Amino acid sequence: MKIAVCLKQVPDMESKFKIVDGKKIDESQIAFKINDFDNYAVEAALQLKEKLGGEVVIVTCGPDRASKDIRQAFAMGADWGIHVNDPAVESGDNFVVASVLQKAIETIGGVDLVLTGVQAEDDQAAVTGVMLADLMGLPHCTNVKKLEINGNNLTVNRELEGGFNEVIEMSAPAVLSIQSGINEPRYPTLPGIMKAKKKRLDVKKGADLGVSPKSKTDFIKMFFPVSEHKAEIIQGDPATAAAKLIEKLKTEAKVI
Amino acid sequence: MAQKFYSEQNLKFTLYDVHGIESLLEYDYFRDYSRESFDMILDTAKKIATDFMFPITSEMDKNPPEYTGDTIKVHAAVRPFMKTSGDGGWINALFPYEEGGQQMPVSIYNACQFIFAAANYSISVYPSLTHGAVDLIYSYGSEEIKEKYATNMVAGKWQGTMALTEPEAGSSLSDVKTTAVPTEHGYYLINGQKTFISAGDHDGVDNIVHLMLARIKGAPAGVKGLSLFVVPKMRINDKGKLEFNDVSCAGCYHKMGYRGAPIAQLAMGENDDCRGYLVGEANRGLAYMFQMMNGARIHVGAGAAGISSAAYHAALEYCRERLQGRRITEKDPTKPQIPIIEHADVKRMLAAQRGIIEGSLSLIVYAGKLLDLTLVAQGEEKERCELLLDFLTPIVKSYPSEMGLFSTSLAIQCLGGYGYSDEFPVEQYMRDVRIHPIHEGTTGIQAMDLLGRKVVMKSGRAMSIYLEEVGKTVGAAKGIAELAPYADKLKRALDLLGEVTASLVGIAMKGETDRFLADATLYLELSEIICVAWQWLAQGIAAGTALGAASESDRDFLEGKIYVMRYFFEYDLPRIEGLRARLMNAADGLTVSMRPEHFTD
């Protein structure tokens, strides 16, 4: 079984975040790592490979620094990867990324299953996997908590709100976005790290894949939401203070 | 609750900017590594530490091991952690490829051990003790022992231990009484008792393999009659099955801290059926043990620095959030309170902790690099590294250990009453770190090793090399305007060290060995402060260099670094004057002349 896993490198959420010019994060203080949800996707793919044979291919859009985390997935056991390293793609939205991933996965050929994390920890959009399925014309299922494969038939549990699961049957090839908790991702091993260095990683630009999609959305700005802590102590004797409070609740807060 | 237990930025700064660990890549032995693989290893260590180890630190403290009558029940995470360590290649990481290892540089391995100790010292020792035991087997054991025992140990299935201490033989190993009687079958029959054996028995593995010191019947008294044996709890019989080897667990101690790992009492040969397999040559046991000792003692330093780091980060988080008081100059009580990190005395306590932790870490990384160089360098450079490492080892072991207690105490002080309660993690760290001045050779033993052996060895050659190396850093710092005053301070400290050393050696020359060594611990302390000041100057040089091209946020880190360097020189280094005052008077033999009766009441 040939499985492509889409992997995104994200900031470690313990990092200090500083916004520059309302446009981007100052990366000098940021440690980057594999998007946690994608780790589950890599593990799910590796378990399928161990059971059914085949290969696991990592596909990533990201700048130079992303290669470190593609190799972390190699160190876990993935076989090879495609790294789309292109500033034009980097500045695009989820649609651009999904379009590029689609073309990159096409170049692998014969992919039976595409796995993504359910969402990225940083932008939390949870749309790339779905867009990818649509662009590839494949069935998809989100929030996958359990996955069984019998030939081309997939039985997947999809997590719903309130702790419910629904069970869906579908057939490969398909795109699945993997929810955390489906498995326990393995740690990269030290021998795996040494082997990772030698594994094949194809670096491509959007043009190499014959794709130059335009964003469907416009990015306006980035900011920390201002939290307002407003408290006023009403002075005076109890009767006066109570009267003032009622007045304020009526005219200012407009709640009575 | 605190989530951070070490500074990744500082660790990488220490490895790459201060000590240039990448220079090891020039040696063929490390050819397969790269900066990227070093970073991946550090990332993986961080991940294991963060996801697996750190969340159960308090739990392991609150649910310590229990003696069941025949073994010791430990936390359920020990078994999967040993498996993770075995599968991940951590137990055999330092061994050469031909032994199935990864040839990892010790400097990187120790950096990982620092991360692991910061996350959860107790659980970190199970695989690292196993590593130490396997190291002895690989170095001196027969092929048969390697295959039968080491294979399962590196896989994390079996625990390895170092079984030296006995009820009557702790610091004084020459008094080891456990006996080994040769048999016609090739093995020895072992009889005796061992105590304080870390991970000496537990249910987190399927077997325990002790690397044990014992005296072969008829061997000379003292340390020259000690031999090294593999003594498994379960031996492999002729049919390849495990059978009990008459090593009984007689109990475990309840400890002040470091509670997640048991220390066991063992009885060997109660039924005259405990087989021991000789490792290497007879009567060379202690020499073999000591070959591993430099590494083990640096490892203790890394453990102590790691625990102190975790306490510091918990304190730092608290100091940033805790609002108490106003600026001394602010007289208006209706103004909001400020975070306590704004108070100068709190900043002093935080800087003091960093001085200890980052100074220790720098020394640990440097010692690791020396250990790496002893493996790959040739000729004179190799000998230089060996002597320098020998000289530094008691310092690398003792400074983080002794000062760790002070550092974790300061962390508690930052939290005030909360720090003294078990609602916050810092009280545990102070208890956990207390083991380090004791195990792998107490501070007193390290002190005698430094003054009685290392200072005078090879006519003072090791010390000369050390002074040359410090001198190089002083020379480099002199050329940098901002650092020149600190270079001068360190130079004066070296002169003071020379003066004190000459005075003490003078006492030794008169044959008054007891007076020469009576205050060795103070001499060790004096040496430690100067040695760590040296490491701070080296960090100051690296920080100054990096500042030129630094981003705004890196500037905070690097400027903070230079502040802590200055702090160490201004607050810690002057302590050597007091130590000098006493040590220059050591000839009076004050404690030597005291009789036990003077402590009657």
Characterization of this structure:
The complex is a heterodimer of chains A (256) and B (601). Chain A has 256 residues and is an alpha/beta fold. The mean pLDDT of chain A is 93. In chain A, helix 2 crosses helix 6 and helix 4 (94-108) crosses helix 5. Chain A folds into 2 domains: 2-209, 3-Layer(aba) Sandwich (Rossmann fold); 226-256, no CATH class. Chain A is built from 7 helices and 13 strands. Chain A has a 9-stranded mixed sheet, with helices on both faces. Chain A has helices at 36-52, 66-76, 87-90, 94-108, 128-136, 190-196, 238-251, and strands spanning 2-6, 9-11, 19-20, 24-25, 32-34, 55-61, 80-84, 113-117, 140-150, 153-159, 165-171, 174-178, 201-204. In chain A, 30% of the residues lie in helices and 26% in strands. By secondary structure, chain B is α+β, with helices and mostly antiparallel strands. Among the domains of chain B are: 8-64 and 75-151, Acyl-CoA dehydrogenase/oxidase, N-terminal domain (Butyryl-Coa Dehydrogenase, subunit A, domain 1); 158-283, Butyryl-CoA Dehydrogenase, subunit A, domain 2 (Beta Barrel), CATH 2.40.110.10; 455-592. Helix content of chain B is 56%, strand content 11%. Chain B has a 5-stranded mixed beta barrel with strand order 4-5-12-7-6. Chain B has a two-stranded antiparallel ribbon with strand order 1-2. The two termini of chain B are 46 Å apart. The mean pLDDT of chain B is 96. Classes of the chains: A alpha/beta (256), B alpha+beta (601).
The portion of residues assigned to helices of chain A is: 25-40%
User: What is the strand tally of chain B?
Assistant: 12
Structural classification of chain B = alpha+beta
- Beta-strand percentage of chain B? 5-15%
Strand/helix succession of chain B: HHHEEHHHEEEEEEEEEEHHHHHHHHHHHH
Please give the largest β-sheet of chain B. 5 strands, mixed, barrel
Largest interface: A-B, 22 and 27 residues
What's the CATH C level of the largest domain in chain A? Alpha Beta
- Number of self-contained structural domains of chain A: 2
